[in-house]
Amino acid sequence: MRKVILYAVTAVILCLFGGVAYMMLYGNTEQSTAAMRQVTDSTGTAMEIPVHPKRVVFLNVSNMDMYVAAGGADTVVGKPTSQSMSPELAQYVSNAQEIGIIHSPNIEKILSLHPDLVIGVNVPFHNQIRDTLQQNHIPLYINTLDSYEDTLKTMKFYGALTGQPDIADKKIAEIKSQCDAALALTQGKQSLKTLILFSNPSSNSMASSSTFSGDLLKRLGGINIADLDTSMTGQFIPLSMEYVIKQDPQVVFIISMGNTPENLARFKEQMEQSDAWNQTAAVKNGRVYDLPMDLFTVNPGSRIGEAMVYMAHSLYPQEDK
């Protein structure tokens, strides 16, 4: 009898150990056998990512906004710490964990969320975490958003990832309709020399047409003074008052980066009182406009049509009804 009991106990123990071993080897089967797709990101890096990711971490707001607009809100587990998030987007991702500001993502926090995909933009702070993520079998997809085409292409791609292509296509149609309305305002209008001024507490820069806001200006028929000297290259060019006076912009757009409303108001007051700025047609004629932070500080994602309409009405206010 004792032998029978001993055999029975041994059998139970072996079954338990076998079950544990099975779970250790195959417990992650859902992730390891998930359908994958081959993609190439904006840096030219080829990788495999899930066909339909289940746990996505975003390192910047613009990509997250479009992913949510494409029907992916329920799969967002990590979000950047940001003040440029619209109230609607903040509500959609209220359950996601913050993983740090865009320039300093917290890799430990990201890993703790066990994502199957991380999406960011082509900046050093995001590219630098690629190796660590790769060591943990987590793909990092870098997605650049510098133009209107980038936005539409991204929306289409995210619709495929979320499995909601109809929602993405509907949003694309809405964006195109808004942009067509903005372009209609330019018909028969004179192209205006324009300065896009990126202002922060420590420096001021001119945005070229290779930036998101510069791309919109170009589409609306504006002449970006940052593009007129071919010796100046890059997305952002240090502000030179000598150059600004020489080019004499008819319109100035100010995009505030980190300035408080009080600081921005003080900066505009200084412009109005400055002998140098008063040599420009824009300041003399009161054609200096603030561009909303939530639409222009970075690519606004699914709200790009709204941004284009806003800029068009500022460039051509005589069209306002």
Automatic annotation (TrEMBL):
Listed Gene3D superfamilies: Nitrogenase molybdenum iron protein domain
Domain Fe/B12 periplasmic-binding, residue spans: 55-319
Matches recorded under Pfam families: Peripla_BP_2
The entry's keywords: Membrane, Transmembrane, Transmembrane helix
The keyword ATP-binding is assigned to this record: no
Listed GO biological process terms: cellular response to iron ion
Transmembrane segments: 6-27
Top-level taxon of origin: Bacteria
Keyword Transmembrane: yes
Family statement: Belongs to the bacterial solute-binding protein 8 family.
Entry protein name: Iron ABC transporter substrate-binding protein
Phylogenetic lineage: Bacteria, Bacillati, Bacillota, Negativicutes, Veillonellales
